[in-house]
Amino acid sequence: MQANDLRKGTAILYNGEIYIVEDFRHHTPGNKRAFVQASLRQVKTGKIIQNKFASDDSVEPAPLVPKTVQFLYKDAEGFHFMDLEDYHTFAVDEGTVGNYKNYLKENLELKIRFHDEKPIILEFPASILLKVVESAPGVRGDSATNTLKPATLETGYEISVPLFIKEGDLVKIDTRTGEYIGRG
Question: What are phi and psi of 103, to 5 degrees?
Answer without folding.
Answer: -115, 0
